[in-house]
Design brief:
Blueprint: E1 13-24, E2 27-38, E3 42-46, H1 53-60, E4 68-73, E5 76-77, H2 83-88, E6 91-94, H3 106-119, H4 134-146, H5 162-174, E7 180-184, H6 192-207, E8 211-215, H7 219-225, E9 228-233, E10 236-241, H8 243-248, H9 250-257
Parallel strand pairs: 3-8, 3-9, 6-7, 7-8
Antiparallel strand pairs: 1-2, 1-4, 4-5, 9-10
Helix pairs in contact: 3-4, 3-5
């Protein structure tokens, strides 16, 4: 499918969703999506519930195939690849509901993706030799310190609060050293304090040059982090631009923001 599409890398564009459509039976969830993500930038995708935001991310990571169109990552066609193959190319995703290993310790949760990155697949029996993997352990502990949950490293991950589970999942993504990080509602369910802490963590990640795509309803988060914002409404991108341009766009104000933004 779409083999005829050119996939030569475009300078500064690390991800391109090109002419993507997605139908579920008679329902069209995505229409004529052309989304280009600039390398090293934070690109937010906003829109009302049902606009197609999570569907678009699922198409990008291979969880669902597009009905037509293609997704290209640095010149590599992602369409048709399995999610684990896409992950190993350097794309990681944080989900709306944290996906962790609830019965494993917090530390093991962070170490597990590092083994998957190294070995090409997750193997449960890898934990038998985990204590011999000093480099991975040190990296995992450093991330837990950065995310403020090092003191919970020996606790089962399922016992963490929602905010700490979110931070744990971010650490699990970062230990894979992704080139592109996709964040689906990274502050969902968090208190304002936890949200602000997460914003500061994501700003710190940004200083390292990692490209991020963020889906988020909280406009405080979006306008704190985004270099570029794309607005989805009824499965279509109705506007893209800088945060200030999006704030001032009357189409966005009507479709989503509910009037002029101060």
């Amino acid at each position: 499918m779409n083999a005829e599409l050119p996939i030569a890398p475009v300078p500064n564009i690390v991800l391109h969703a090109a002419d993507v459509f997605k139908n579920f039976g008679g329902l069209r969830a995505l229409s004529d999506i052309d989304l280009q993500i600039e390398e090293g930038k934070t690109h937010a995708i906003i829109g009302p519930n049902g606009a197609g935001k999570s569907t678009l991310l699922n198409v990008i990571i291979g969880r669902i195939p597009p009905s037509s169109g293609a997704v290209i990552f640095d010149g590599t066609l992602l369409t048709g690849k399995a999610p684990h193959e896409i992950n190993q190319l350097g794309i990681s995703r944080v989900f709306q509901t944290p996906e962790i290993f609830a019965d494993l310790s917090v530390l093991y949760n962070v170490m597990a993706p590092a083994f998957a990155r190294r070995d090409g697949a997750f193997r449960v029996n890898m934990l038998r030799s985990v204590w011999n993997e000093n480099e991975i352990r040190d990296e995992a502990e450093h991330l837990l310190q950065e995310f403020g949950i090092w003191d919970r490293r020996d606790d089962n991950a399922g016992a963490l609060s929602r905010g700490d589970k979110r931070r744990l999942e971010l650490a699990m993504c970062l230990i894979q050293r992704p080139r592109l990080l996709l964040l689906d509602e990274p502050t969902a369910g968090m208190s304002r304090h936890d949200t602000n802490t997460t914003i500061e963590l994501l700003k710190k990640i940004k200083q390292g040059g990692m490209t991020k795509v963020i889906i988020e309803h909280d406009m405080h988060v979006v306008f704190s982090l985004a270099d570029t914002i794309s607005v989805l409404a009824q499965g279509r991108i109705i506007a893209s631009g800088s945060p200030q341009e999006i704030k001032e766009d009357p189409r966005v104000q009507e479709a989503y923001l509910g009037g002029p933004v101060e």
